[in-house]
Amino acid sequence: MKDAAALETAGYDVVWLRQLPLAYSAEVRRDKTSTRLEWVADSDFRFFPAIRDETFGYLLHPVDLATNKVMAAAGRREVRDLVDLVTIHETILPLGAVVWAAAEKSPGFTPEGLIAEIRRNSNYPAAEWNALRTSEPLDPKTVITFLRDALDAAEAFVARMPTDKVGLLFLQGSKVIQPDSDRLQDYQTHVGQRRGQWPSNAEITAAMFERAAQERLDR
Predict the structure, then answer these.
(1) Do residues 10 and 53 both lie within one domain?
(2) pLDDT tens digits for 84-104?
(3) Domain containing 6: what range?
(4) Are 20 and 121 members of one domain?
(5) If you ran DSSP here, which 8-state letter would residue 164 be given?
(6) Number of domain units in the chain
């Protein structure tokens, strides 16, 4: 793998943890520090185009990152996924809206089914929590309590939503939000497609131009 060769040439040790056809993970070490890197084959079906980034090349839009994380948490057992779900709920989009949209990325799954799988994969012994490397100490009880409350709220949200809207995102102006299920007509809907697409209306276009102008001023 070219990435591993580049890391080793730069003086890092690469210890492979998993090598599967569609997913690779390794611990990368140098001196007394280490980190874990993962490579995965991802579908190009997404809600938004990838975002150009000076450091990483390209990044997924935060909402696409959130839907991918929901799918990962439903399909595997990784304690860090639980922490990421809490972060998503607090900083990107409530889990109800994320789960609702994520079902479009995995035909055969319903929003209710995704929530059930996440619950099933959310029980971990203390040893696994202790092995999780974080910048600040975590209280597993606090994380689990918050996540359960978020999943309860997500379950209540999807129960109120009409099934013909599964897989859609909802926008209020230029912002992706979790809608009021009794006022769906007040929001613009946004669908996913290969390579993603930007939603378009006058307010969104104006907000994008405003952001671009601000970024130029900040440089």
Answers:
(1) no
(2) 999 999 999 999 999 999 998
(3) 1-41
(4) no
(5) G
(6) 2
